[in-house]
Structures
1.
Amino acid sequence: MKRKNLYRARRFFPILTLFFIGVIIPFYYCYPQKDDILLQDIFSQANLFYEEKEYDKAIAEYKKILEKKVESGNLYYNLGNCYFKKGRLGKAILNYEKALRLIPRDRDLEANYKYACSLIRGNIPRSRRGFTFYINNLFKWFTIDELTIFSSFIYLCILAVIIGSLYIKWIKRYRGLILVFLGGIFIFILWGINRKVSLIQKEAIVIAEKVEVKFEPLEHATTYFTAYEGMKLRVMASNNGWQKVKRADGKKGWVRKEKIEIF
């Protein structure tokens, strides 16, 4: 009898496991947790401060959420709007940039970002229009998470083709062509993910009104070019409180790290 009961228990174990995975776990994650409710209250309070034009208080509330290691595109977007209203162009563009990494196809965000960039002093150098430029423009519309999901889907399709070719004649006939096509897409997406990941903590926004970029990491070094608040730079290296940066047109120089903010 004991063996029979044990066998029945084992027979129902897979069913219980599927129930747990399909019902209990999603319910747990979908049901609002205490911390989630608290963060939503803070977010709502920050929005209220923004509507009342108390931007410093709104910023303080939004930062409380960031201190909890919680990020969202809307959070950075609202924070950018607060800084913009305060006239802090560099901080505004910085947060718009962070938001674009999370919600790249948001039209309101894109409009505010473009308008803020139009206010940057001086002539903003244009990046060189090569193959990389157009590829970056393509991948900028997708987040890293979205590209990861898409690459996983392509990988599953490749496995499905390999398995299907063992049983289905027409798949076997065109297997090579299909695998080359899917494999090309898979590699292309992985390359795009790698490029986006490589930019994390390698880009910076000028947050000071005006920055003299030097030839060397020394205060008395000759100024190479001037960067203005809101301008985006690529971070190349660091040395004793200095950051080596590259402008969009390829010019490189050194700037004090407190003059920029890396993201």
2.
Amino acid sequence: MKKLLRILVVDDTKFIRDLVSKTIRTRYPEMMIDEAQNGRQAQSMLQKNEYALVLCDWEMPEMSGIDLLQWIRGTPALEDQPFIMVTSLDEKEHVVEAVQKGVNDYMAKPFSGEQLITKMMKTLVKTGKVSREEYAGMGRKERVTSGADAMSLLTGGMAASPSKPTNSKKRRGALGKALLMYNETRQTVIVRDITTEEVSLVVRCADGLPGLAQHVRMGLVAGDEQNPAKVTAAGFVMMMQLAEKKPESESAVVKVQFANEEREVREQLSEVVSILRRG
């Protein structure tokens, strides 16, 4: 009989919760996934159920991820609860604080489906929730990227199939994901096309849209999962239109013009763009 592993996904954005849950279920259909929209709801669920792992966002209303972690470590019955914190690319001080508060591991947004699975299973094995023998016999043997690729899982199926070649003049689907940041908003979006001058994004309307000429920051990551290229670049919204020619369109195309940055940021952006466009 297989061990029942229950995972708690905590994020105030339903879209992200759905994508993370779908990624886990695709690789490990035997796992049970529960979802909470903030730390307070997660707190209540942790008092009622036993979880093998908590995957938690940092910034949430009512109770933040760091406050939930602190409460868990201060509760005798939960002090050993495995906990992975999700942070933004530019929040290095938050990572340090999370480690000091007792986080088992952390992930920077945006991340791929394979990165999520790798972090999750590493923590489950390290904390003894899953033995190495059990790990070897769990889940589907193919990687997350087979059958339904990781980008498809994390973008609601909007990515192009990797079996269909594209060229630089006419690209289809997605090149990757990014974190779009403005005011207090952080959104995981799809990168449709990118150069060192500008980036074209697909944004879900339900998650909210930035304003025209809105100053934003883009968190981008690309390359090898163990040593990815990352950059956080500033810019402004220069164009925005619905993805479909109808008012009920579920997504919008947002074009961001990158601002003139210091040399180090320009070099980091150039590296990320090069990797993403190579596909």
3.
Amino acid sequence: MKEIIVAIDFSNCSLHALDYAIMIANHHHANVKMIWVDNQSSPEMVFTHEEQAVRQEMKGYFEEILLKYGPKLIKGKLDYKLRMGKVFNEVSAQAKHDDAFLIVTGTHGVSGFEKYWVGSNTYRIVTNAPCPVVIVRKEFAFGNTIKNLVIPIDSTKDSIEKLIFTSELAKVFDAQLHVLAVYPQMIKALKLKVDQNIEKAIQYLDENKVKFAVETVMSDDLTGALINYATLQKVDLIAIMTEQGVTNSSVFLGPNARQIINNSPIPVLNIRPKI
């Protein structure tokens, strides 16, 4: 059975992410595993009485969560794991160990704070994860399904890689996939590359029988244009590529991805390009 990993620090933000993960799991018939990370201690340290007490307290919190959220998971199993180390390393390590197909984590956005570790570790979880990561804001209200997804396509080869995972997700939810052609500047050669990628996207989606529509946006503020489009179209999920790159040709790598993650009120599906 598939598995979804959720980063939990017991904040309302992380519990909202848990609800979101359960919604996805119910459509995938997947298990959900919650991960809490002790980021204050070292794996080499011998547990003190105080540390043992903290871990017992965390287990108690998790047992309460299991009682409250367990019945919401229709087909799969809700479980938890306590780990020690750097948050982003441990969340990624658990996802790799379980061969998870998705990580879900919350974020406090640009107005975040350091009291809880979920918000401050979000971007590092994304860049270290072995699988796609969904980031959801605690203010985002959602139902029991995903009806619309948007996938921006630019001029890079990596831009097409989002299609495989995103289209499968769209099929599971029987959702509409909005393919957004992004033209950052009116350069003929660049526009041609975007058009070629759009043609490839259309061919792939047609062959895989995914419901989709193609739209176009031209703007110097590409992050703002994407979020504005997603908001106006009442999109439920934005899919982007997020690997840090050395090229300036892709508008959704590195800093732009960070801006989308920080500013999007809509959940963001982050997919790293293959090396």
4.
Amino acid sequence: MMSRLRIGARASVMSLTQTAPLLSALAPTKTVLVPFYDAGGDREGGARTALESDGVFTDEIEKALLAGDIDIAVHCLKDTPTHDTPGLVLGGFRPRGDLRDALVHRDPGMTLETLPEGARIGTASVRRRAYLRRLRPELEITPLRGPVDERLAALDAGKIDGLIVASSGMDRLGLAHRISHRIPPELVCPPLGAAAVVLQCREDDEIPLNIATGLSDPTAETLAAAERTVLREMGGFCNAPLAGYATTDGEQITVRAAAFTPDGNVLIEAHHTGPDAQETAMTVCQCLTRHGARSLAQAAA
């Protein structure tokens, strides 16, 4: 019998905030939170790892999980490696949040469509930059990454005029009131795995795996299976020029995906609806491939 369950998560405010409900759900199980301060994407300033590789945000925590230093790792699904790390498995899928991108602006009524020409918009995401260049080429895109509080500070200091961030992150941080516009996914396609929190375990560690499975949401798991199929088949990763999302009405699942050039000049989209998550996702991948999307999705950012 396990005396305590060691939960590993990035030490960012965002990660710890989305981990807190999990700790509540685990009660009365004795838990210990193990924060990781040196995850690649969280390092300070210039020491932050480049985003043009798979597993940037999860590598350190996965190593600790494999070494037996923690029992369950908490990740954002979109940050997990495209292919499961040998010896590890995604065992629990928490209910999904709002997958839309959000515009944060000092004017609470501002929308993506009403931003003035030349407005300075902060984002480091290849996907967001591509869609902004496609939809509003007259905007000035300023590379900006880091914790949400740092990006909001840059906005409040007047260094930029607006930010594009994840709606789910703002909701979880209690900052929904800062959102000016929740951008429809038909306008800016979300990243595959958006707004989903997953629990990762060692594949042969029965007790943590059973606990993670018991906390899993079946709908979230189905949507994740479809989206990860697109990632694997198209050769993408968290900051690749690839986007998409799945939805379900409880009987049918619809998968939408897009590949694009970082400058936004080329965009290839496909969607399909069917009863099986993986088969539907594969149909979308085949359609994208027929139209030349594979080379775009695998292109270096």
